[in-house]
Specification:
The protein is an alpha/beta fold and 292 residues long. 31% of the residues lie in helices and 17% in strands. The protein has a single domain (24-287), classed as Ureohydrolase domain (Arginase, Chain A, 3-Layer(aba) Sandwich), CATH 3.40.800.10. Strands 4-1-5-10-9-6-7-8 form an eight-stranded parallel β-sheet, with helices on both faces. This is Agmatinase. Belongs to the arginase family. Agmatinase subfamily. Its EC number is 3.5.3.11. It is an enzyme of class 3 (hydrolase).
Length: 292
């Protein structure tokens, strides 16, 4: 597929640059084949794009405008319904292509398993890769009811791929006892319940390191993001997640890509979740890419 081909669907606000000329590529991964509770996150990428129309292109937080970034919305990947392995293969092959073309990728899910092939591709290019994981759930299972391809497993897979000491989890407040035990004994950098304070302490350790950022929208309290498949009470606010995104962007880390996953719009008729997600993505587009 040529990403310079016209995308027939809606695009994220401000996408004007061709793939060839773009520095940053936004793309959707509409997959929810392995969810454990409520499906619907495959509709997240499209609804986030639609919600972005209500955004200003200017960020007063960063004093930047989307016109300042050459980015291209490549649309949604065509993922075969109900086939997790083939879908993951397509995502990984696509990511390899983006990295060969020196693009900064920002992915929109979809369930959280879509982050796994991206992290694999990133680790092949950046041998000292670190992962910042912001989520309500540990995602540290080896399988879910015998299925190793599950949205409850991507962070465990990342730990086994790049080493648990290179994975930094924040905001987690749900998981099996065995997952919490693994997080606390494996060498992971595990910071449950909170995001802002532990993130401020950890970011100096990531100075100049290549860092991939994966954000599950369910880190937010359901009051702010009811439109997700596995909502979990006791989360952070939209303001706190914005602060975290800005802290990461302002840090000395070399951010190499990011994703935002698990928006399931059918469960949020007020569209609070998609509206918040579109703003987070705008801030990532404007704040994450850095020259090295």
């Amino acid at each position: 597929m040529s990403f310079d081909e016209a995308y027939s669907g809606k695009v994220f606000i401000g996408s004007r640059t061709s793939y060839t000329d773009a520095d940053l590529v936004l793309f959707g991964m509409p997959m929810d084949w392995t969810v454990s509770f409520r499906p619907g996150s495959r509709f997240g990428p499209g609804r986030i794009r639609e919600a972005s129309v209500g955004l200003e292109e200017y960020s007063p937080y960063l004093d930047k405008h989307l016109e300042d970034v050459r980015y291209h919305d490549a649309g949604d990947l065509l993922l075969p319904f109900g086939n997790p392995q083939k879908s993951l293969d397509i995502i990984e092959e696509t990511m390899d292509g983006f990295l060969r073309d020196n693009k900064f990728p920002i992915g929109i899910g979809g369930e959280h398993l879509v982050s796994w092939p991206i992290m694999k591709a990133m680790a092949r290019k950046y041998e000292d890769l670190a992962v910042i994981h912001i989520d309500a759930h540990t995602d540290l299972r080896t399988d879910y009811e015998g299925e190793v391809l599950s949205h409850s497993t991507p962070i465990r897979k990342a730990c086994e791929w790049i080493g648990p000491e290179n994975v930094f989890s924040f905001g987690v407040r749900s998981g099996e006892k065995e997952e919490f035990l693994y997080a606390r004994t494996s060498g992971m950098n595990f910071h449950p319940f909170e995001v802002h304070e532990p993130l401020q302490r950890i970011l100096p350790e990531l100075h100049q390191r290549p860092v991939y950022v994966t954000i599950d929208i369910d880190v937010l309290d359901p009051a702010y993001a009811p439109g997700t498949g596995t909502a979990e009470a006791g989360g952070i606010s939209s303001k706190e997640l914005l602060q975290a995104i800005h802290s990461i962007g302002h840090s000395g880390a070399f951010i190499v890509g990011a994703d935002l996953v698990e928006v399931a719009p059918v469960y949020d008729h007020a569209e609070k979740t998609a509206i918040a997600a579109s703003k987070f993505i705008r801030e990532m587009i404007l704040g994450f890419p850095k020259a090295r």
